[in-house]
Design goal:
12 strands; seven-stranded mixed sheet; 15 helices; alpha/beta; Aspartate Aminotransferase, domain 1; three-stranded antiparallel sheet; Aspartate Aminotransferase, domain 2; binds pyridoxal-5'-phosphate; globular
Length: 391
C-alpha cells in the first residue's frame, strides 16, 4: 500500500510519552496478572442518573436532531453564567463571554491557534498536562517552561522568569487544582498572576478541569474571582471530572470577550457545535442541586485519606494533595528515575503509576497516582508495595 507522508505539522507533534507505558501495562495484563492501574486519569464513577435521564429525554427531541446553532445553545451559555454567579460570585455575559467546547482539551488545544503566530512564546507549567504542548506545537509557537517546585507549593515563581522571556510571552497556561501535583492555588497567587500578566501583556488561560475537587473543607477558587482576571484571560471548565462526563465531550471557556470571540471564530470554521441533547443535559447538570458533586468530592477525599495513610504506614514519605484526584509521590532514592521506579512497580507489584517525567523535566523524581479506584484496591496496592521492602 502506498504511504502518504505526514505533514511537517504532524511530524513535529510531541511524542506521546504515556503510549509506551500503556504498551507495557497491556503486556502484563495479557500475561494474566491482576493489575491495579493508578496511572490513568479516567473517572471511574458513572455520570449521575439525573443527568443521564435529562440526556435520554433530550435525545428524543426532534429539534435537537437538526444542526445545533454554530456557537452553541443560548440556554447552555445562560446556565454557565448562572453557575459562575452561583458558585463563584462571578458575573458572566452569556452572549459574549462563553464559548461551548467539545471538552476542555479541545479548548486548550485551540486557544494557542487563536492567539499566537508562529514563533510566539507561551509560558507553560512544568510538570504539566501534556496536551498543552500539543496545542503550542499546532500553533507553531514556542514554549518556555515555568518550573513547579515543592518548595513553592507547586506554584510558578514569577520572579525567576527572565525579563526577555516576560516581554516576549503572549500567553500563559495555568492549572489549579493541578494535574499532576494535586496542588491548589491561593487567592494571593492569582492576584500576583493578574499583576504579572497585566504588566507584561500576557493572556492567562486557566485550566479549571479539577475545579470541583478540593479537600479539607477548602473549595478550589476560580481564577475569574480575582479582581481584573476577566480582563486578562479566560478559564476553561469541563464536565468530565465534576460530573463524570469524560465520554460526553463537553466543556466551556469563560472570560475575556475578545478571546471568546476568537475561539468561537475558529470553531465556526472547524465544526458545528456539540449535539444539542448533550448541551441540554450539560445545562441540567449546572442548574440542578450540586449534591452529586459534593458526594463525588467526599468520595475522592476518603480515597485520598486511605491512600496517604496506607503509604505513610509502609514508610513512604508522602504529602497529601489538597485538590484534584491525583497524588504526587516522591520516587525512593534507590531508583535512578521515575520511569525505572514505575517499571519496577509494574513488574514486581503489578501496580501502575505514571512516571513524573512524562509531565515534563521537573516531574522527574515523582510519580503520579490516581484516586480512581476503590478503597480496597488502593489498600491492596499499598500492601503489594509494602511486600517489596523499599522503605
Ligand atoms: N486539563 C487537565 C489538567 C486534565 O487532566 C484533563 C483531562 O484529563 C483535561 C484538561 C481535559 O479534560 P476534557 O477534555 O475531558 O474536558
Amino acid at each position: 500500500m502506498k504511504i502518504f507522508e505526514q505533514s511537517h505539522l504532524l511530524n513535529n507533534l510531541p511524542k506521546q510519552f504515556f503510549a509506551s507505558l500503556v504498551g507495557k501495562v497491556n503486556t502484563i495484563v495479557e500475561q494474566g496478572h491482576d493489575v491495579i492501574n493508578l496511572g490513568q486519569g479516567n473517572p471511574d464513577q458513572p455520570t449521575p442518573e439525573h443527568i443521564v435521564k435529562a440526556m435520554q429525554e433530550a435525545v428524543a427531541n426532534p429539534t435537537f436532531h437538526k444542526y445545533s446553532p454554530f456557537r452553541g445553545q443560548a440556554f447552555l451559555k445562560e446556565a454557565v453564567a448562572t453557575f459562575y454567579k452561583r458558585e463563584y460570585g462571578v458575573e458572566i455575559d452569556p452572549t459574549k463571554e462563553v464559548c461551548i467546547l467539545f471538552g476542555g482539551k479541545a479548548g486548550l488545544v485551540e486557544v494557542p491557534q487563536c492567539l499566537l503566530n508562529p514563533g510566539d512564546l507561551v509560558l507553560v507549567p512544568d510538570p504539566g498536562y501534556p496536551d498543552y504542548w500539543s496545542g503550542v506545537e499546532l500553533a507553531r509557537a514556542k514554549m518556555e517552561k515555568m518550573p513547579l517546585l515543592s518548595e513553592n507549593a507547586f506554584l510558578p515563581d514569577y520572579k525567576n522568569i527572565p525579563n526577555e522571556t516576560k516581554q516576549q510571552a503572549k500567553m500563559m497556561l495555568l492549572n489549579y487544582p493541578n494535574n499532576p501535583t494535586g496542588a491548589t492555588a491561593t487567592k494571593e497567587f492569582f492576584e500576583e498572576t493578574v499583576t504579572f500578566t497585566k504588566e507584561n501583556d500576557i493572556c492567562v488561560v486557566h485550566d479549571f478541569a479539577y475545579g470541583a475537587i478540593g479537600f479539607d473543607g477548602k473549595r478550589p477558587i476560580s481564577f475569574l474571582q480575582t479582581k481584573g482576571a476577566k480582563e486578562n484571560g479566560i478559564e476553561i471548565y469541563t464536565f468530565s471530572k465534576s460530573y463524570n462526563m469524560a465520554g460526553w465531550r463537553i466543556g466551556f471557556a469563560v472570560g475575556n470577550p475578545s478571546v471568546i470571540e476568537s475561539l468561537n471564530l475558529l470553531q465556526d470554521h472547524m465544526y458545528v457545535s456539540v449535539f444539542s441533547a448533550i448541551q441540554e443535559a450539560a445545562a441540567h447538570a449546572l442548574l440542578s442541586p450540586q449534591t452529586c458533586v459534593n458526594e463525588l468530592n467526599a468520595l475522592y477525599e476518603t480515597r485520598r485519606n486511605v491512600l496517604i495513610h496506607a503509604f505513610k504506614e509502609i514508610g513512604w514519605d508522602v504529602t497529601a494533595p489538597s485538590g484534584s484526584f491525583f497524588a504526587w509521590l516522591p520516587v525512593p532514592p534507590q531508583f535512578t528515575s521515575s520511569e525505572a521506579f514505575s517499571d519496577y512497580l509494574l513488574e514486581e507489584a503489578h501496580v501502575v503509576v505514571a512516571p513524573g517525567v512524562g509531565f515534563g523535566e521537573y516531574g522527574e523524581g515523582y510519580v503520579r497516582v490516581g484516586l480512581l479506584t476503590s478503597e480496597e484496591r488502593l489498600k491492596e496496592a499499598a500492601n503489594r508495595i509494602k511486600a517489596l521492602n523499599l522503605f
